[in-house]
Specification:
Blueprint lengths: L1 H10 L18 E5 L5 H5 L5 E6 L2 H10 L4 E4 L12 E7 L7 H14 E12 L10 E4 L2 E3 L5 E3 L3 H7 L4 E14 L2 E13 L4
Parallel strand pairs: 1-2, 1-4, 2-3, 4-5
Antiparallel strand pairs: 5-10, 6-7, 7-8, 9-10
Keywords: Methyltransferase, Transferase
Protein name: Methyltransferase, putative
GO biological process, one term: methylation
């Protein structure tokens, strides 16, 4: 948490660019975003949704509140969500689980399953094993690396993603790769994208 607080306090907005291919959800859909950071994904969400966004970093939420005063922003840990069961139609977990160790990822998955309504959906994105940064830094857990900022990043496979959210039904899981030009070189970025459905009980 201190690493995130430091980054957002000293560097301000950390994440540039836009978020593509958000799902088309009905007006009034109650949505939870985990790890909203400085509001990159939140910026792309339609105002017709009923949105709650949380982050573990207060400096991040302060950045968010300037550009998204209409959203409910909460300081909370995605491993212990402060919501009643069956509270949300959709949960977005974009690049948040990958910054947790395995027990934390499992806790997040359990909490997502708990707060989703029956018939609700989880929208998940994380970096995959083929990503250009895989292997950079100190390996502190399998496929999990600590870099200079003090923040860890875990790199996922499709099968691991399915296993992590085993309480939900996978609607789609796929790996997407694209080239990014860095200092004249083309390097591969890799992302796991998945949608999971909570079955009717």
């Amino acid at each position: 948490m201190k690493s995130w607080d430091s980054d957002y306090s000293t560097r301000g907005r950390l994440w540039g660019g836009g978020v593509r291919n958000l799902p088309d959800l009905p007006e009034g859909t109650r949505v939870l975003e985990l790890g909203c950071g400085d509001g990159k994904t939140l910026s792309a969400m339609p105002r017709s949704w009923s949105i709650v966004a949380l982050d573990i970093s207060l400096p991040a939420l302060r950045l968010c509140s300037r550009s998204h005063p209409q959203s409910d922003l909460i300081l909370a840990n995605a491993e212990r969500l402060p919501f009643k069961s069956e509270s949300f139609d959709g949960v977005f977990a974009y690049h948040v689980a990958g910054h947790l160790f395995l027990p934390g990822r499992r806790a997040l998955a359990s909490e997502v399953s708990r707060v989703l309504k029956s018939g609700g959906k989880l929208f998940f994105r994380e970096f995959g094993w083929l990503d250009m940064r895989m292997g950079e830094g100190q390996e502190v857990e399998e496929a999990t690396f600590l870099r200079g900022s003090g923040i860890i990043t875990h790199y996922f496979t499709e099968s691991e993603t399915s296993e992590l959210f085993c309480r939900l039904v996978p609607a789609s899981i796929e790996s997407n790769c694209w080239n990014m030009r860095v200092r004249g070189r083309y390097l591969v970025r890799s992302q796991i994208e998945a949608i999971f459905l909570k079955g009717w009980e």
